Description:
Strand order of the largest sheet: 1-3-2
Number of helices: 15
Distance between the termini: 85 Å
Amino acid sequence: MRDYSKVSAQFWVGKTGRALRGDMQTQLIAMYLMTSPHANMISVYHCPIVYIAHETGSPIEGASKGLRRLCDEGFCTYDEENEMVWVHEMAKFQIGDELKTGDKQIKGLQKQFETLPEGHIKQGFYCKYKDAFHLPDTSKDASPLEAPCKPLRSQEQEQEQEQEREQKAKQPPVDNSTAAGIACKQLKALGITGVNPHHQDLKALLAAGVTVDAIVSTGSESKAKGKPLAWVLAAVKGRIKDAASAELPRKASAEKQWFESASGIEDRGRTLGVTMSPGEPFQVFKARVFKAAKLPADQVRSKRIDAGMRP
């Protein structure tokens, strides 16, 4: 288990640090990977997701999501089969930019490298640090079908790219002259996937009077990054529904209650079978209606009703 690790303060203002601003869960996972007690000098180590979740106090789902985003940002590579992680730039901070020939650290570094399982992480580490750390040539051990320096991509990233290519192939051409086309063009520029100006929900929202700006504004939020058009439209519909729900109590409170007018009290009295006797003062009749309606006295007082004066 490691006693300490080196973490550069430049992380917070570097490419990854800037990209993660506002995403505290992923920031926590990144800091954990750089300071994990399971890490080693070459920054390639066994790191099951349950370790991350348990030692950061995160739910499994949150740990997995944060790790996926770090892979997407190019911060690290994760091998699910072997449950190993490689933090790409970490070795540079633990060891240095490069080692001189004969440096005592080379032997230990090479030993750790040679124990790594064959795969894209070992290839990637070799390609990045072979010259700086004098790594032994592994090309003779590689499969003849496998390029020695294959670009680093996780299996999930490759699947996502393939899905994106399929989605783009299926997307109909965007007509920029229509409101739907303008919305789709702007959403696509924001990174929203699956844009389709013929989407029924998009057409329905625009027909109902929702503006292009309102739809694009929802798509520009940080949590919408990389989401499909359907997600953005569902978010817009949800906000419209929430706004309508919030409006109902205001409308209800603005409407006049039956006990706030003489005519309303008379109508309620007829409904309850309470009629005004000949010569009966209206205040007495009103009290009988209130009693029959079981209207709370404090509610009546709060309205300051003066039903004795007819409208």
